[in-house]
Amino acid sequence: MGVPLGVVGVVGVVAVAVRLAVGPGAGREATLMGDIAVVGIDCAFPGARGADAYWELLMRGGDVIGDLPDGRWDRGEFPDVSRGGFTEDLDAFDHAFFSVPPREAAAMDPHQRVLLPCAWRAVEDSGTAPSALAGTDTGVFVGVMGGEWGRLTLSDHRSVTPQLGAGSSAGMIANRVSYHLDLTGPSLAVDTACSSSLVAVHLAVNALLAGECSTALAAGVNLVLSPTLGLVYRQMGLAAPDGRCKPFSLAADGIGRGDGVGVVVLRRLEDALADGSRVYAVIRGSAVNQDGRSNGVTAPSRWSQQKVIEAAYRRAGVSPADVRFLEAHGTGTVLGDAIECAALGSVHGVPRDEPCALGSVKGNLGHTEGAAGIAGLIKTALALHHRLVPASRFADGENPRLRLAERGLRLLKSPLRLPRGETVAGVSSFGMGGTNAHVVLATAPRTVTARADDRGVPAVGVFTLTADSPEGLRRNLAAQAAALAAVPRTAAAALCRTSNRVKTGLPYRFAVAARDTRQLGEALRTAAGEEPTAGEAHRPRSAPVVAFLFTGQGSQFAGMTAELHRESPAYRRRLDEADAALAPYLGTSVRDLLLSGDERVHRTRYAQPALFAVSHALAGTLTDLGVRPAAVLGHSVGEFAAAVTAGALELPEAARLVTARGALMEELAPGGAMLAVRAGQDRIAGTLAACADAPGVTLAAVNGPEDVVLAGGAEELRRVGEALCREGIHTRFLEVSHAFHTAALQPALERFGDEAGAVRTARPGIAFASTRYGRMLREDEPLDADYWVGQAAEPVRFGAALSALVREAAPTHLVELGPRAQLLPLAGRSGLAPGVDFLHPSPGEGASGRELADLVAALYRAGLDPDWEALYGPGDRRAARPAPYVFSTESRFPQANRPAPAAAPLSAPVVAPAATASPDRVTDSVLAVVVEAVTEVGGYPPGEVVPEARFYEDLGFDSVMIMQLKDRIEAGLPALGEISVPRMLPALRSVASLAHYLNRLLLAETGVTAE
């Protein structure tokens, strides 16, 4: 049963007097209601699944009335009540998505089954991932009428089960949504007959205004499961012979029943606007009243209907002349239409520029009873959103006895285009028992959004999608691709950003970077065609462990990272930060130097600050995006950016040191050079010893087992390089001006030491791999002046440092930060980082600017939850609408096949083996018993339960099912006797863990010992 209206005060949902200072309600009297935004919509009506399909049905004046589908009742036995608005797939339910065992799903009231996916999609439509609402005070208010499922399932007392008890309660309908979405705000079902769902909206609005919840789901659901109420209507003279409602028509002859479910997501308007939510419409006011003692408990009262409308207008601060159109209750009964039009005329028959438009969606859908109010509210919200009111069905056959024109009303024979500015509309819903509701809505306030950057090409974004299984992921990839194929090609960034906010939270992940919707659609189509084992379906078990590698000198080039600078607002901000820190010491703008393509970037005086700026900006951009390194490593001058990232140096002090270092080194005598050699120290030792004419050549870096760098005079290095080439060893001169990391730097290092001595340092806050020491930095080793002087003079021990980092930090991903990839190829050739993925946000001259997005997409697939906002510019931070989640329809729970009680013992219990049996046989037998028991209790098909399945997350077991499982295991393993539930509970992590626990108990009982 639903909660009676008079009892709702128990949960504290009361009307309040609130005045909001934001939006259309500003300036209204303090006794008026506040403004509530409709931010999300989903619905499923016959022939119209989803808000877009519903709108299309309304705009074409569609009629969904037809014959009763198979599986409900015998049409031949009750032909007079077997036409109406019926959905075809009432028995479909994606039970695995919601972790509902098949036995429980079969016992659930179909109202619960159809509402759950609708609620999920409505939350998505509001611009929020349903998982993001978990644990919040979100409220759920559901209008539902009657309790047919309980009457159908509980009448046979011998078939009663705990699952049927919970599954047949109308009050559980709202609780199901709260439970499965983990919502902790008010949760109640409301039954005021035909006005139930609009009363639910009223209660949700007031709960928001009272501060009981910050978000509310208001819903209505109605399914015609039996002919009972239709027979009642017929005996009362209310049933239309053809099953069709004809509101306000001369042909009106009664009610035709219909299925339907609708959900709206509501928020306080100021909250919705502050979050940048799309607002369909604004609820300005609402009211609920009762007929009291009228002509009969089921007879409508003109005066009460008039009063509830007037009360709603007062609370909304509008006059009848302000109301442009009305969505009436409009059942199409002769008496009901006459009374409603009289009440409407008493209110709206005032001087006005044009009559108030009148309509009723029951002419399209039939009377959806408990969902009728929400059907009308959604229609009205969509009309305000599109600024177009659908034509009224049966307007051509208007009943003249209703005197609509003289009452200030008119039926629409064609759609009504709404003018600019605010439009006000009203929605009525009246219950058979006399509970009446009216809601006043208005168009959403206009909002100003930033313009997208005009760069000639669309900005890149990362489109994300998650699902509960690989099959679900492919299904939804295909749905998203199909949705994009149906619309014109546009920029994709806003859609990508919305997907980051909406399409996350499920275990299997997909992400791809794209600039426009055509490019995105092609990527989605390709991924949808991949097999489950392909790399596109990721289910990360933990977050990735990322280490940053900072590139050294020799990687610079004119115009480096210019494309990324054009692409990424976060990178621009971080490069500006570095530029501001360097400018006082460098005397010029390093940013301008980089972006202008100035060749001075190769001079050491500018190269080192420029590399520092790029590396620092890249690191800052990634940390802004939520990529926090577990460890850092810097190659030569790259250690300064690493030290800033690790918190050992402040940015201004690092800028001072890098600028001084570069300037002092450039002052040294020219002539030095550096040679990269693709060979190890041992292999080249003999060649170096034999080059007597190159005594100044020394080892400057050991980058890996087969990668070293030599430094010395340019001519000496040329001769050594020729000798190495004759031995088949590959060599390459680096783009540097001096022989770094040699004694040739000593004159500059003395003065550099004085500069470094004045800089304050701190202990690194994260693991720091020192390329000076070739190992991880110890806690008692400071990055002081001595360190920086020695670091510049001594060889770089990159290979050893990388090996230590991989060994101690165990990264899953190495990210190189510099203008081109130098360290990642070294790491790859060295074999020092096996199984680690390599990423680079701007890998060289050919970089397009989208590599940063590709990097974030890769880390998201690996388990990172980025701070997505940093990826997008202000112009792309606007709401878009990805296609709603597509649930599986493979699992079917026909009404005729209700579950049998799960009370019998296992059909063929696996008896524990004898004490002489081997441990392996005992283990296999116990697992078989547990799997069979879980299969039986949950109602799963044979072979579907696997040892890795988790009882709560995957199988949806609850305390009742755990007790049933205990009974069946005791029957299957009688040697155990009675199992202690408290001792068993810790083992209920998975089927395998429970079997392991029981196996140990059984071995102890039987005396069998493990080898």
Relevant terms:
12-stranded mixed sheet; alpha/beta; 6-stranded mixed sheet
Task: Please specify the SSE layout and strand pairing.
Blueprint: E1 36-45, E2 48-49, H1 51-59, E3 66-67, E4 83-84, H2 102-107, H3 110-125, E5 139-144, H4 148-153, H5 162-167, H6 172-181, E6 187-190, H7 196-209, E7 215-222, H8 228-235, E8 260-268, H9 269-274, E9 281-290, H10 302-316, E10 323-327, H11 334-348, E11 356-359, H12 362-365, H13 372-386, E12 388-389, E13 409-411, E14 416-417, E15 424-430, E16 435-443, E17 461-467, H14 470-485, H15 493-502, E18 508-514, H16 517-528, E19 546-550, H17 562-567, H18 569-586, H19 590-595, H20 604-624, E20 631-634, H21 638-645, H22 651-666, E21 672-677, H23 681-690, E22 698-704, E23 707-713, H24 714-726, E24 731-733, H25 746-757, E25 767-770, E26 775-776, H26 785-793, H27 798-809, E27 813-817, H28 823-830, E28 837-839, H29 851-861, H30 919-938, H31 959-972, H32 981-984, H33 991-1006
Parallel strand pairs: 5-6, 5-7, 10-11, 10-15, 11-13, 19-20, 19-27, 20-25, 27-28
Antiparallel strand pairs: 1-2, 1-8, 1-9, 3-4, 7-8, 9-16, 12-14, 15-16, 17-18, 21-23, 21-24, 22-23, 25-26
Helix pairs in contact: 1-13, 3-6, 7-13, 10-11, 14-16, 18-20, 18-22, 20-21, 20-22, 21-22, 22-25, 25-26, 30-31, 30-33
